[in-house]
User: Fold this.
Amino acid sequence: LELELKLELDVVGRLDKLNQQTQVMFEQVLSYPVRSLRRIFGNAIVEVCALSLTYDEKLPSVQMSNLFMLRQPLLAPTGVVLWSPLLGIRWFDSLVDLKQLLAATLISTQQREQWLGIFAEPEKGMIRKHLERTDGNSLSIDTIPLDEHFIEQLQRVEQDRQCKAVERSEERRVGKECSQ
Assistant:
């Protein structure tokens, strides 16, 4: 993931599609992936956050895999940056704008399946069913600050998502064999 991020940052930067602040934020977290190492930047410290979705108040929130957000919370109101394989590197003027876009992609029947891929089973199916039954207004997206090595933390979440997908597939296969 680290190499992929560096390559994407380089390519997008060469195409002049990044604002200066986005470039600086990415360079800071890629050079110093642990929050405590970024303290040297003082008020310009970049915070890396994972994102989670709450779709039912009775259930715990579900972490989204394979994406993260960057922000500088100690500076005057600044935008946020999202990275995901679906959007690449994308600047948002505010955290509210980012949350609205993510909620809209999940609500949209045209984009939903693609974006449900960032959730592990069985939550993925539960979110799908919830969205089919409701208008999606109950969706809440929250940030989870990542203080340790953010790339390693994100990779663990993605590996867990993939393992759950394999387990779910195996359960279905065994279930079909037993019913035959």
